[in-house]
Amino acid sequence: MAWALVLVLIGVLSAVFLFCTRRKRQRNEPPLDKGSVPWLGHALEFGKDAAKFLLQMKEKHGDIFTVCVAGRYVTVLLDSNCYDAVLADTQSLSLTHYSQILMDRIFNLQLFNHDPVSERIRVDQYFKGSSLSRLCSSMQNNLQLLMASVNPQNPTEWKKDRLFDFCYSLLFKAGYHTLFSTENNNSAEFTEVYEEFRRFDKILPKLARRSAHRDELKIASSARKRLWELLCPDWFFTGTVAQSWMQTYLQHLKEQGIDRQTQRRAMLLQLWVTQCNAGPAAFWLLGFLLTHAEALKAVKEELCSLQHLPLDKREDTPIFNSALKETLRLRAAALITRDVMQDKMIKLSSGQEYVLRHGDRLCIFPFLSPQMDPQIHYEPEKFKFDRFLNSDGTEKNKFCKEGLLMNYGTMPWGARSSLCPGRHFAVCALKRFVLMILTQFDLELCDCNARMPPVDLNRYGFGVLQPDGDLEIRFKLKKKIHNVKL
């Protein structure tokens, strides 16, 4: 029996070795880098620090290359001027297959009848026009209510907090109330949803990569089950409430023939998609401002000059917009992934043509190109609040590389079929949150010499990065607006 097991093991290892060594680069295919470990390839380096690894591969191979990652061959494209043309081909490049894999791994969700096209149309309609205006107004009101309750007993006395938790909790609760409005607007329920969400979100990248250990899997499973219960109480299926985003999405799933249990699970996916980035983005924006005095002064002066205007007149903020774009350039790091359904020829900006092989996976990483490309942005690792401003104070949207005009200077919202439909609502929420903080509160670092914490390397590929650490802050209501309704 022992010999039989040994022979089976030898056979499996031999099969793996042959599988991983037989791959050869064909004519016109991108440079191939299989790594030194059969089958595993570059999986460890990719998972440990995706940005560092892909930058090393870019320096070694150029703007396109294929690497082996745990038995899968992944072609990485880093020429941002051909992103649009590549992503426009939805026949050769499919989003559906890989997204279904991630939904199952992360959310224990299978949407076999899922129609992403009809869902995208519905979502686009919800986040534009009059619907967008109503959402922004509701978000403003919810933020005001939450901020008024932050320090109700002694509003003009300093209160200490951690900036990441402060931003994430407020924007999450306001966003949850706005998009997932409930009949029972219970603050304790909001807090529990937030706490369970944070427990789940901390482990989410490891769920996607299948690297979570046993204790982490238990925590994720527990948080996931509790969120299923909290997000979809029975009365949401009765049609007794107004058409919130939750109700609209549930109706869409019902029309797709998806059962109630799966609908409950799908709501956690929507919660994560809509709420995972706002809090971290606000943290980085306020953190950069608090640690860059010149930037903070410029943004404050611009926002304060708009306070007397109606909300719909407060949109002319080129300095704030530049600071926000710069923040997202530095910290938005999602991977755009497609499965190659048939051999496809792509042409780089250089004119060189390459063939993507059927069965491989394509990844586009805007964080490296264009966002952190030193040939596009001088000193790309530094926060420069006016990077997206022309000398006359107008918006700068033209960037060049080696004399070639770039299609994008930054791509925090994706592109083409991956373009975030809720980007306008997200910008509105961030702007109004920061406007409230900087104009209605005194906010400062507890340690005036504090530096921004490094990023959590585990979060590359999953939207806006999160910090590995925090900033201690203190804040209080400005005296001039004490006893005035926010």
From TrEMBL:
GO cellular component entries: endoplasmic reticulum membrane
EC number of this enzyme: 4.2.1.152, 5.3.99.4
Record-listed heme binding positions: C420
Cofactor: heme
Entry's Gene Ontology molecular function annotations: heme binding; hydroperoxy icosatetraenoate dehydratase activity; iron ion binding; monooxygenase activity; oxidoreductase activity, acting on paired donors, with incorporation or reduction of molecular oxygen; prostaglandin-I synthase activity
UniProt keyword list: Endoplasmic reticulum, Fatty acid biosynthesis, Fatty acid metabolism, Heme, Iron, Isomerase, Lipid biosynthesis, Lipid metabolism, Lyase, Membrane, Metal-binding, Prostaglandin biosynthesis, Prostaglandin metabolism, Signal, Transmembrane, Transmembrane helix
Subcellular location: Endoplasmic reticulum membrane
Key word Lyase present: yes
Gene Ontology BP term (one): prostaglandin biosynthetic process
Domain of life: Eukaryota
Transmembrane segments: none
Residues reported to bind substrate: R105, L111, N277, R361
Topology with respect to the bilayer: Single-pass membrane protein
Residues spanning the signal sequence: 1-15
Catalytic activity as recorded in UniProt: a hydroperoxyeicosatetraenoate = an oxoeicosatetraenoate + H2O; prostaglandin H2 = prostaglandin I2
One Pfam family per UniProt: p450
Main subcellular location of this protein, as a coarse class: endoplasmic reticulum
Function recorded in the entry: Catalyzes the biosynthesis and metabolism of eicosanoids. Catalyzes the isomerization of prostaglandin H2 to prostacyclin (= prostaglandin I2), a potent mediator of vasodilation and inhibitor of platelet aggregation. Additionally, displays dehydratase activity, toward hydroperoxyeicosatetraenoates (HPETEs), especially toward (15S)-hydroperoxy-(5Z,8Z,11Z,13E)-eicosatetraenoate (15(S)-HPETE).
Family to which the UniProt record says this protein belongs: Belongs to the cytochrome P450 family.
Protein name: Prostacyclin synthase
